[in-house]
Amino acid sequence: MLVVEPSTEDRESLARRIGEIFPSGVRVLDAASLADALALLTHESPDCILIGESVSGFDVSRVSSLARPNGGPAVPVVVIAEKDSDDQVTKALEAGAYDVLLRSRLAGPEPYRAVRNALEAAQMRRALESAALDPEEDAVTHLPSRRTFLEMLGGALSVKREEETIGVLLIGIDGFKGVNSSFGYDVGNELLRIVASRLRHCVRNADTLARWGGDEFAVLLDSMSRPEDAPFVAQRILYALSRPFVREGQDFYLTASVGIALLPVDGTDVSSLIQHADAAMYRVKRLGGNNYYVYSAQMNVHLSDRLAMANRLRGATKRGEFVLHYQPQLDVRDGTVVGLEALLRWNDAARGQRSPAEFIPVLEETGLILPVGEWVLRKACTQARAWQFAGLSNLRVSVNLSPKQFREKELPRKVESILSETGLDAGSLELELTESVLMDDQKYSAAVLDQLKELGAFIALDDFGIGYSSLGVLKAFPVDTLKIDRTFIRDIGEDEEDRAICSAIVNLGQALKLQVMAEGVETETQMGILRQQGCHLIQGFLFARPMPPDEVWTWLTAGPPAVPVT
């Protein structure tokens, strides 16, 4: 890689740091100015360029001259910014920078993830260039190999007619590593063969379906008359994979992330189409999977927004910008408050109140969810203990666990430590998880839940009904509460299917001796139907919105709310 810095000391420091972080070996070239860098690039082809914002002759608008110095394949350029400026970050990314690092954070390993990702992108490009070494057919699925796919794509590009569109779909199976680790590679390979069979039925005979590698597949949609056909195929793929895979009586549930790139809007050559489809696929994965995304140039703008938000989120805890609000949960038979769900809120000093839908995915993606999630758990337990000291002894606090938190091996120990530190009895804590988190690796999930239950904590399955749990799997998990997803509650008064789903979940919970809670209840009609179906635990705006702790105290001490009789 090429390091461009005006100071010899800075160049040597960065080269030394890169050598420490990449012990397998990275050859580091260096230059002191933009002119020196461009001269060096006439006879060198680095896989990544790391350049300081203060380099002579350089400003962020010059990124493109570095990224394609000789008109060849794009080289990832990572810019080192002197100040945490949202405008400057946005300008760099819009100019074509791969990522932006802050100089003040170069001492730690975290910023070098961008360098690692850039090097991996370059490795992918080399893999595409050397794909001719691959066999023509994949040995497991008997689909065309990556090499054959690239040849077919190149051929399609060479004969494309002006009125036709070509689409490239990259399909990654979500959480497939959990299958291999839990059940072995023989089972994993058998499932891949079944996946390949289902995918064949989703594409035309004229299209090319290939095994891209690992748990990924590729589709070439040749000679499409309309760009809208590609998302339609992606929807068919997601639907085909949503049905359970049955092997020796065991149900397996798989989802996929599909990235789409279209010619000519997303690229005009093999490399750019593959790169953009891959970027779109990983965007879906970062957002939780089980969806598709069509690449667009606006992804760079979204990336700059994400980076700017991530930079602000890193200091939010220290600045006291995070707060917890609590939403009461009631038993509508007598109006008793049975618990409070802790919900994270961010008062961004720069832009005011931010929606959780905006910042929670960024916390998850950057890994900040681990320290922030631990802060939430400790804060909620501390607050619950304070309410108990004040005389509200029967309250249970409910805390959401993110996928990354749940997969952290130290989670049970951390929960135990926080309970001990705050003095809260484990029976006053409920931990909420989604179905998809548990289904990722069922054996691991069951083991962790058993440890949490041994502590005495309660377990709730959040957003129930939109995931893929089978009854047998659900019975195997030590779950106490099912929370009906709000999407089924919203139209329960008018939609017969939603009513039937809610009734089925209530009956399922009763049969398994689980509590069932409906969230997102906003009207008396919704509550009346749910209560008639036997669902007595309610959470929603009908009774209370999420409130800061002082308002919760006022609300609780005013007496139980009046529950309408329906």
Please tell me about this protein's structure.
With 566 residues, the chain is of the alpha/beta class. The chain has three domains: 2-129, Rossmann fold, CATH 3.40.50.2300; 133-296, 2-Layer Sandwich (Alpha-Beta Plaits), CATH 3.30.70.270; 307-557, Alpha-Beta Barrel (TIM Barrel). 45% of the residues lie in helices and 20% in strands. The protein contains 22 helices and 21 strands. Helix 1 links the parallel strand 1 (2-4) and strand 2. 38% of the residues are buried. The model has no long low-confidence stretch (mean pLDDT 83).
Shape: globular
Assign the CATH superfamily of the largest domain.
EAL domain
Poorly predicted runs are none
Number of strands: 21
Into which percent range does the helicity of residues fall? 40-55%
- Classify the fold: give the CATH topology of the largest domain: TIM Barrel
Main CATH class of the largest domain: Alpha Beta
Instruction: Please tally the helical runs, counting DSSP H or I stretches of 4 or more residues.
Output: 22
Which CATH architecture of the largest domain is right? Alpha-Beta Barrel
Gap from first CA to last CA: 70 Å
pLDDT averaged over residues: 83
Question: From the structure provided, what is the oligomeric state, counting identical versus distinct chains?
Answer: single chain
Summed up, the domain count is 3
**Strand neighbour order, sheet with most strands:** 13-14-16-17-18-19-20-21
Cα-based radius of gyration, to the nearest Å:
27 Å
**Structural class per helix/strand content?**
alpha/beta
In percent terms, what proportion of residues is strand? 15-25%
Let me know the largest β-sheet: 8 strands, mixed, barrel
